[in-house]
């Protein structure tokens, strides 16, 4: 719950000036209801982690009376999804959460969910011919090997990631004090100044080389992590690269029963109405002094339209993902949302790993649970790993390589029989999920807008800074605060500068 603070009288003049300047930035914020009444109906399009978290936060801020409808044409959870193999479920979408992801931690606590028990497993990096980096059972030995092969590059990298994470953690203080941002640029600038903004425009490889990280370390350690996490290479922007590297550290966890349970729980906690339908058009609708949005929708069980005071689009708007929402009747036209999403294939294979392909003729001595790959054009897969089910009993043990196990293979294209026969000696089943999983990160891309129109918000723009469950949760909290403050014309809580100093002063 947000803590609101009463401003001292001495700040009155500054607040008036802030109000005047904010109007030019935020657009027609004065078109919000003038009688102080809360909105009657809010629509959220998309029931992934971003949409369901938005429903939860909007309920917190606007109270119990507002009606919150969540439109979802597919399955609740979006890119948090599972498949079933031999009566056990396995994550096929977003699968790991960092220990510093405070929103996700709070969701799990509020919903009474549990962290899934972790099962140890070693990782190695394969270059197409041999393993060039192997994890052992001894942490100090692993550190010595990193130093021996790459000098102090790994220390420089660790310090860089920790510095970025420390700055990013400021967002939780800002949001706890009720501050919001009208754009992704404003949010990033408040956390890390121009440095964070520059990191969205410069490549990861360029930034790391400037930091003093060796090219060899980038090619043999960093590139495999980018391939498994984002299916892309070291040319991705530095900020999203830092998000990816944070997700490759220790202290990672997942939800017992599957991460999608968070989305289902948040919908219930928000007392939101789930409408299984696809929104086809959004158009402005004005009656007297009241401005609303008309949503037309179609579903297997119902078809119709509704009017809403506030609308949050929590699903990608890019054509590459088959976006079907048409914005009609807006003058001027809404800002364009460009870019495309990256195509990644997740194959869940139940079978026997072909250890000979990795240089281990005897599978009994194959020690690795996960294999990452370098950026070698001859390699047709990004990673392969023996995965654990979403429910782990006390007696569970990870399958050994000589046993039939369940493996997740990430690749750019669907694996044909020749590719499957290369990685696996034999297999019982293959289940394929063809994801438009995350943005295709290119150079020179701008960050999509958060405010599409007064009372109309876009959540997924945050993904172009970094795609992760927590990034979507941060965006959800920001939009809930932004919508609340704009509705109530509390513009002094939006896009404020020098927030760390301001918060210390308030305390």
Please provide a written account of the structure:
- This protein has 507 residues and is of the alpha/beta class.
- It has two domains: 195 residues, FAD/NAD(P)-binding domain (3-Layer(bba) Sandwich); 236 residues.
- The protein is 33% helix and 23% strand.
- The strands form five sheets. A seven-stranded mixed sheet has the order 7-6-16-17-18-15-19. Strands 9-2-1-13-21-20 form a six-stranded mixed sheet, with helices on one face.
- Helix 2 runs parallel beside helix 11 and helix 8 packs across helix 10.
- The longest helix has 19 residues.
- The radius of gyration is 24 Å and the shape is globular.
- The two termini are 17 Å apart.
Can you tag this structure with a few keywords?
seven-stranded mixed beta sheet; globular; alpha/beta; disordered N terminus; 507 residues; FAD/NAD(P)-binding domain
- Assign an overall shape: globular
Largest sheet: 7 strands, mixed
Whole-Å distance between the termini? 17 Å
Major sheet: order of its strands?
Answer: 7-6-16-17-18-15-19
Which class do the helix and strand fractions yield? alpha/beta
Average pLDDT confidence is 90
Give the C-alpha Rg: 24 Å
> What's the number of extended β-strand segments?
21
Percentage of residues assigned to helices: 25-40%
């Amino acid at each position: 719950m947000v803590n609101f603070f009463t401003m001292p009288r001495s700040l009155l003049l500054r607040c008036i000036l802030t109000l005047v300047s904010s109007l030019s930035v935020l657009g027609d914020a004065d078109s919000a209801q003038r009688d102080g009444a809360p909105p009657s109906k809010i629509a959220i399009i998309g029931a992934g982690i971003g949409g369901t978290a938005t429903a939860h936060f909007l309920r917190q801020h606007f109270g119990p009376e507002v009606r919150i409808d969540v439109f979802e044409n597919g399955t609740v959870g979006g890119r948090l999804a599972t498949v079933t193999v031999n009566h056990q479920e396995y994550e096929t979408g977003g699968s790991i959460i960092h220990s510093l992801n405070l929103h996700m931690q709070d969701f799990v606590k509020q919903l009474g969910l549990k962290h899934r028990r972790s099962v140890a497993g070693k990782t190695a990096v394969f270059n197409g011919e041999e393993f060039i980096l192997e994890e052992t059972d001894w942490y100090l030995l692993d550190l010595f090997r990193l130093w021996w092969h790459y000098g102090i590059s790994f220390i420089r990298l660790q310090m860089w990631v920790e510095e970025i994470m420390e700055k990013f953690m400021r967002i939780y203080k800002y949001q706890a004090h009720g501050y919001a941002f009208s754009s992704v640029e404003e949010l990033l600038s408040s956390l890390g100044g121009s440095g964070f903004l520059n990191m969205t425009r410069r490549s990861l490889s360029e930034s790391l080389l400037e930091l003093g990280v060796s090219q060899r370390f980038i090619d043999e350690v960093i590139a495999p992590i980018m391939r498994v996490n984002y299916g892309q290479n070291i040319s991705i922007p530095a900020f999203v690269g830092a998000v990816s590297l944070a997700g490759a550290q220790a202290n990672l966890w997942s939800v017992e029963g599957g991460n999608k349970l968070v989305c289902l729980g948040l919908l219930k906690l928000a007392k939101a109405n789930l409408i299984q339908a696809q929104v086809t058009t959004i158009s402005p609708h004005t009656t007297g002094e009241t401005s609303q949005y008309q949503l037309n929708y179609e579903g297997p069980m119902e078809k119709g339209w509704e009017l809403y005071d506030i609308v949050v689009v929590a699903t990608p708007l890019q054509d590459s993902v088959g976006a079907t929402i048409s914005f009609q009747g807006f003058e001027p036209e809404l800002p364009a949302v460009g870019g495309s999403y990256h195509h990644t294939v997740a194959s869940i294979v139940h079978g026997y790993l072909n250890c000979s392909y990795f240089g281990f003729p005897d599978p009994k001595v194959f020690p690795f649970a996960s294999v990452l790959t370098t950026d070698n054009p001859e390699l047709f897969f990004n990673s392969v790993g023996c995965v654990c089910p979403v429910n782990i009993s006390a007696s569970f043990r990870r399958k050994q390589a000589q046993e039939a196990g369940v493996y997740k293979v990430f690749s750019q294209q669907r694996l044909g029989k020749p590719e499957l026969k290369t990685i696996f000696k034999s297999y019982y089943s293959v289940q394929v999920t063809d994801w438009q999983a995350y943005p295709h990160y290119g150079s020179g891309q701008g960050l999509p807008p958060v405010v599409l129109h007064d009372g109309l918000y876009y959540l997924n723009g945050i993904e172009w800074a970094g795609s992760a469950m927590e990034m979507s949760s941060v965006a959800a909290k920001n939009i809930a605060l932004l919508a609340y403050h704009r509705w109530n014309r509390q513009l002094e809580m939006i896009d404020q500068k020098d927030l760390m100093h301001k918060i210390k002063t308030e305390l």
